[in-house]
Amino acid sequence: MKKLRRSARLVDMTQHLLAQPHTLIPLTVFAEQYGAAKSSISEDLSIIKEAFESQGVGVLTTVAGAAGGVKFIPKVKTEDALDFMKELITHLGNPERLLPGGYLYMSDILGNPITMSKIGKLFASAFADKNVEVVMTVETKGIPLAYATALYLNVPVVIVRRDNKVTEGSVVSINYVSGSSKRIQTMSLARRALPEQSRVLIVDDFMKAGGTVRGMIDLLQEFRATVIGCGVLVETADVSERLVDEYVSLAKLQEVDIKGKQIEIELGSYFQK
After folding, report:
1. Helix (H) or strand (E) holding 148
2. Judging by DSSP bridges, how do beta strands 199-207 and 226-236 pair with one another?
3. E strands, the chain, where?
4. For the chain, which domains are there?
5. Which letter does DSSP use for residue 91 in this model?
6. What would the pLDDT profile of 91-141 be if each residue is shown by its tens digit?
7. Could you give the subunit structure recorded for this chain (predicted)?
């Protein structure tokens, strides 16, 4: 590679780190790529580290030793998360979003790449220290949220299906009780989709009683997987019995007045840490 000036090298290194979050990169990789001494690379990384932390991009962690290196971990400052979620809650609180049954119309938000990227980074930040190996969701609305989260954790996405797909080979299927409707439903996951004993983060867009998330947790037992956490974009407050005990929510639907078309939404448990 053509030897770069230091300013260009800093830009290229920054891009390299951003593109590979949660990946340990040996200093020798940078030294060989740019034809620079390790001491110079270390100085460059100190500059990048300071910029990342001051701008709320994330943190750089250094692992010492022959097998060591540097790792970029995306993080979100609390004040930045608050500003973003307060703005998003304002959008979610628009009475025109109210649907029958007290649900909110969120398809436009879930279809916005920039918004999804910010939400994904919030979840990735919340579970950054949990050694996540896979992000799981159930089709269909949770899919963009899962991919956005997985991007910042640098892990694969596994999608639970409502029905079997011939193209996925043998599957594991379970019946579960929908928390809101109390109906018996089915969800399936291909055997090849998830290695056994994986560490899984579950994400979903909306949670009432938590029947769907509970179903995914039960399904994961068939794969001897470990559920390290659950993140939901919006949870409802008016639930007599929650089927999931531990989860992180970004927003809470506190009260819905269908007749008066009033929606009250507040910050979720993410901000109670």
Report:
1. helix 143-153
2. parallel
3. 58-63, 69-74, 98-99, 103-104, 134-138, 157-160, 171-177, 184-190, 199-207, 226-236, 248-257, 262-267
4. 6-74 (1.10.10.10), 78-272 (3.40.50.2020)
5. H
6. 999 999 988 876 789 999 999 999 999 999 999 999 999 999 999 999 989
7. Homodimer.
